[in-house]
Structures are given as structure tokens and as C-alpha cells.
Amino acid sequence: MPSLRKATLADVPTLKALIARSARQLSGADYTPRVVEGALRGAFGVDSQLLADQTFFVVEENGQIIGCGGWSFRSTLFGGDARADRDPAILDPTCQPAKIRAFFVDPAYARRGIGSMLLTHCEDAARAHGYAQAELMATLPGVKLYAARGYVGGPEVYFDVGSGDTITFVPMRKSLYAP
Considering the chain, what is the average pLDDT of its residues? Predict the structure, then answer.
């Protein structure tokens, strides 16, 4: 039975490997290998600010980390430590949405509810901190999960991953309260 806990600094090497494995194996239908490798250099990755804020979580099964994801009360919408333009400014929950961040699932556990488990936990935590909305930057493979969970997408955006390549993302937003 999968269990959820806060991620720690000791998890970082395992998280880096999980993120790379997840991105390489679950994104192949939507992104070229070159784009995925570029994204792994900044757009995807561990954000140590989330660990310090204790808003990043792992799902484990039999002692193995099989998924990760978090939420944030800071302005940065996506990207790991390698992304230079992260913004640590604290958001105002009365008028700004919480950020849903860095969801990755081990390919062997894909489509088994791990992402939904993490998302429910993160939305509940953001709601408990006074946030009425959440937003995220979805990868193309992630759009279906988030749409099924009530997130509404905006126009695609393109993020430079180097070497003349860009990765396509879909910004998405959701009310954390039922209409």
C-alpha cells in the first residue's frame, strides 16, 4: 500500500533519478529525447526551496520512492535548482494561487493513482493555508491528469531548454473550492 511523507534532503539523489527516469520514459510520445534532456537541465528537477519549506512529498511503496510532487506558497511556478530565474517571493493567499509543483511518477507505477494521491494532498495543504486557487505548469503528458482533476488549461507556452530547443507546457488553474 503506497504511503505519503514529506521529502527530505536525504531523498534528493533518489528524487533526481526518479525525475529523470519518469521524464525519459513517460514523455516520449510528446517530446523528443533532446527536448527531455534539455528540460532535465532546468525545467525539470528538484527545487530545494520546496524541501526547505516542507511542501514537497514522496509516495513510497515497500520502502521505494515511486512518486513525488509538491505545492508552494512562493512565486516560482516550475523548475529545479538549476533554473536560475526562480522567484522565492511569498504569495498572498487572498489574491494569488498556490503553485502545484514537480509531479513525477516512476514509470512502473504510472496510471495507478500516485499522481492523484499527491495532488489531493497538495491541494488540501494549500487550502488549509488559505489558498482558494492553485495553478501549475503542466507537461503535455500531465495535462490529462490535471484536466481530469478539474484544472483548466490556457494557451500553450514554450520554454527554452537550450541548443535551440523548446519544451511545450500548458499553464493550468483550478479553484480549490467547489462552485
Answer: 95
